[in-house]
Design a protein that fits this description.
Length: 149
């Protein structure tokens, strides 16, 4: 099932906002499993901002990883293996094993992000392969400006 098809089926929400947050740093897939890159996107979000489940799913992890709070949400009916979304740094407000509806607050943005300003790192995986989570949300169309004013 393609990610575009999943968007139409799931109707995913932005995990922070509304309005849609600014993308502070985009997805940059690594060349190999251990190569440099950015395995998700950073969304502008203030410390304490609620983090919403972008779709209905099951919380498969909520706790610390490498000193940062992380929540992982597994999305049902998204293929085999199912898609998982990850959020960090956060303070989880749900436990692993809990089923949540789209729009449910699952965490709060924790202070001390890796961004120059506060942000939420949003990742997307199928199995061990990282994907671009921005493919799952609707974004306004790009506007091209004339060259040279």
């Amino acid at each position: 099932m393609s990610l575009v098809h999943l968007l139409l089926v799931l109707g995913l929400l932005w995990p922070v906002g509304p309005p849609a947050p600014a993308v502070v740093r985009g997805w940059q897939p690594p060349a190999g499993p251990y190569g440099p890159g950015h395995r998700g996107v950073d969304l502008a979000a203030a410390p304490g901002a609620p983090v919403l489940a972008p779709a209905a799913g099951t919380v498969s992890f909520a706790g610390p990883v490498g000193g940062r709070g992380v929540v992982t949400l597994t999305l049902p009916d998204t293929g085999d293996p199912p898609l998982r979304t990850t959020f960090s740094p956060v303070t989880p407000v749900v436990r692993a094993g809990v089923r949540v509806a789209a729009g449910t607050v699952i965490a709060r943005v924790a202070p001390g992000s890796h961004c120059p300003e506060s942000c939420l790192h949003w990742g997307l995986l199928r199995g061990e392969a990282y994907r671009n989570p921005l493919l799952l949300v609707r974004r306004p169309p790009s506007r091209l400006l004339p060259v040279g004013g």
